[in-house]
Amino acid sequence: MTLQPRPGLLDIKPYVPGAAAPEGAVKLSSNENALGCSPKAAEAFKASASVLHTYPDGGATALRDAIAKVENIKAEQIVCGAGSDELLQLIGKAYLAPGDKVVQSQYGFLVYRLVAMQSGAEIVSAPEKHYTADVDALIETAGDDAKIVFLANPNNPTGTWIPGSEIRRLREGLPDSTLLVVDCAYGEFVDAPDYEDPLALVSEYENVVVTRTFSKIHGLAGLRLGWMYGPQEVVDVIHRVRGPFNVNLPAIEAGVEAIQDVEFVAKSKAHNDQSLAFLTQQLGGLGFDVTPSVCNFVLVHFPETPGKTAEDANQFLAERGLIVRGVQPYGLPNALRISVGLDKHNRAVVEALEAFTKG
Prior knowledge:
Layout: E1 26-27, H1 39-47, H2 61-71, E2 78-81, H3 83-95, E3 101-105, H4 110-118, E4 122-126, H5 135-142, E5 146-152, H6 164-173, E6 179-183, H7 199-202, E7 208-213, E8 226-229, H8 232-241, H9 249-260, H10 262-285, E9 289-291, E10 297-301, H11 310-319, E11 322-323, E12 325-327, E13 332-339, H12 343-358
Parallel strand pairs: 1-11, 3-4, 3-5, 5-6, 6-7
Antiparallel strand pairs: 2-8, 7-8, 9-10, 10-13, 12-13
């Protein structure tokens, strides 16, 4: 008898990350921090080399304490993981069974689909309005039987977001048996007055979980580090399914310094604000439709005209050493996601796309 995996696993299309940049090219495909990481975090990473023979603290106590102090939340309700990706996987492992329904927004992060399919659950997408999550559609799609609703706020790959009042309305419109997972990987980039950090909702509801990452504004994508904040009952369940040493020692040490380096975070935020405005204005001036973004990337739309499509533009940019991200897997075949880079890289993108429009 031929060995067979569990039914449904072979239907999964593995997640494909942003393309790597060949030598000499500029990688603008993975929304990495253009400024790198905190120098203090880098020093902590280097210092950890002398103790690599020891196991890390399985509870990541120092890191949870540092996060709790900065975010003014309870350390015992934090779970750390190998990126927020692992935490999303653990949530699925803990709460999903074959046949369960999982809901996401139409252009939600691809990992949500993987989490559902790995557990044999059904993933259903709620339509969006203007590339933005629609709370009414999410509530209607969830009905009374959704096990999990995943919402990225802000969202990748669109860069759009909904205000805190809408998050609360979503939670109130879902049954108590539905877990609302609010993924805030890009939350630190947003400073709009009505954008509410959903961490506060965790203390108000028993079925809200928030995930965050060190990969974006903190610039630690290579270390794979993230954290989750949730009700104690949910946290206790996640601890039962995570590995005993799921966060490595260098990541813990670097994470402690990164979360405390508010100056580097502010510097990264300031650079992103300026660069995002530049790219949006310049690309819009070239005639491209750019979805308004609050993240460290822009979603640029292209026509279906032969020679002027998103695929044509992607190839044109790649030939000039600028590696960006096609978003066909999200159902956006006519768009490219372009990460914010250093000033010279942002100018290079604009100049290349200007040449593309004239070619």
